[in-house]
Design goal:
44% helix, alpha+beta
Length: 195
């Protein structure tokens, strides 16, 4: 993470222009003119002060947005985080049809191998269109539990040595499945998980 550029503070004028472009379809012509007037007033009054405060925060933090994101978009967010916040995994089609248990075992084995790469620092650097991405949050992908709270959720990170299982949900029932460590024989590992 230290070798990556810090998350930049977006330019105030660019942010306002992008907001205006996104907001335009939501307003009538008169309403949009009122919106533009308020945006212009913001840029001329409060905007520069708030922009300076963002730059100050950026100078004082490794990531100026992270704490706010975690607090307001994640822990205080009362909407379904499963669909609105969490990352997702994209899967390639299997070369041939598989029984459901075999496919589930293959997915579990892939997750175990991914975790092994993550923990051994051998995971290939994530990037988008050739630009390296910060992978700091990957540390929370495993051995971490998000606990629901009435007003605010919270997370707990468990020792990796204690996290050797997965939860399996089937027809409204939950099971604990102990997962073997990845070996060099992937087919044997998948067969063991499937049993």
């Amino acid at each position: 993470m230290a070798s990556l550029a810090k998350l930049p503070v977006p330019d105030l004028h660019d942010t306002v222009a992008r907001f205006a472009e996104a907001a335009r379809p939501l307003f009538s012509a008169d309403e949009f003119e009122t919106c533009l007037a308020k945006l212009n007033d913001f840029v001329a009054t409060q905007g520069p002060t708030l922009q300076a405060r963002l730059h100050q925060r950026s100078a004082e933090h490794a990531n100026w947005l992270e704490d706010w994101w975690n607090e307001y978009a994640y822990f205080l967010n009362r909407s379904s985080v499963c669909f609105n916040v969490n990352y997702f995994f994209g899967f390639r089609d299997t070369p041939q049809p598989m029984a459901q248990a075999r496919l589930a075992a293959a997915l579990i084995d892939s997750a175990v191998r991914f975790r092994s790469q993550l923990e051994s620092d051998s995971l290939e650097l994530d990037n988008i269109r050739g630009k390296p991405m910060c992978m700091y949050q990957y540390q929370y992908m495993f051995a971490t539990c998000r606990h629901p709270g009435e007003q605010r959720d919270w997370t707990e990170v468990y020792p990796r040595s204690e996290s050797t299982h997965i939860a399996v949900a089937h027809k409204g029932r939950y099971f604990v499945l102990r997962v073997p460590a990845a070996s060099t024989n992937r087919h044997a590992d998948i067969a063991q998980i499937e049993r």
